[in-house]
Amino acid sequence: MASQEADPTELPAACAGEAPGSLGEAAAEDSSAYRPIGRSQNHPEVLRALGAVQILNGAVILALGGCMHALQNLSQASNYFFLLIVSTGYPIWGAIFFIVSGILSTLAGKKPTKTLLETSMGLHTSSAVMALVGIVFLSMNLFANDPLLKGCQSSWPPDLCIYMEASSNGLVSLMLILTLLELCIACSVVALWLKANCWHLRKAISSLSNPGESRMPPNESKEIQS
């Protein structure tokens, strides 16, 4: 009977260089728990740690957005500096994406089921996109502060405008750093997920491309080992 064969060249480019596993390892895996984050037992702990950082990161961004909104309502002079980032609503929807991604990472680290891990990967991809959008908005806000300072000084006391510009630069810069951190975390989780799935794919192809080894009689396998 002709056995099925798989062409290793059909592997994605991202899987190149990954070492294939043995057929025995593939058969020994528990089908009830889907663990595509690699062979190391420390990966669930890494997921939980990254998830905790994401939750804290999102909470701080949300708090900074609240501070910006409060300062904007406190003085109309601050409208010159916080208008862009507050009007886009990034501190709200960006923080919500990051917090939800962190919660799913924590849950996936505790119970790495297929549904949780695939949902977490999708949300981390979305979080990375949201972080990129947030970086654009925050950078535009920073670059616009210097020209807006002149417009503020023409209508308000110069000292107040300078104070509001310094507050804006500090809060926006801190939010930008946290957004960059979120981008790094989201990309790292997605990269780990893709790397581990390539490893599982190579294991499956290895077991299909070498069917004779698993069907070899015990006596012949002992002679080859000797």
Can you describe this structure?
With 226 residues, the protein is an all-alpha fold. The protein is 77% helix and 0% strand. It has one domain. The chain has 8 helices and no strands. Helix 4 (90-110) packs antiparallel against helix 5 and helix 5 (114-153) packs antiparallel against helix 6. Mean pLDDT is 74; it is low at 1-6, 18-41, 213-217 and 220-226.
Question: What can be said about this structure in brief?
Answer:
With 226 residues, this protein is mostly helical. It has helices spanning 23-28, 43-74, 79-88, 90-110, 114-153, 158-209, 211-215, 218-225. It contains 8 helices and no strands.
- What is the 3D shape? elongated
Average pLDDT number:
74
Low-confidence stretches: 1-6, 18-41, 213-217, 220-226
The total strand number stands at 0
Q: Kindly, what is the distance between the CA atoms of the first and last residues, rounded to a whole number of angstroms?
A: 29 Å
Give the C-alpha Rg: 26 Å
Topology pattern, helix = H, strand = E: HHHHHHHH
Structural class: mainly alpha
Total tally of structural domains: 1
**Main beta sheet:** none
Strand content: under 5%
Number of alpha- plus pi-helical segments:
8
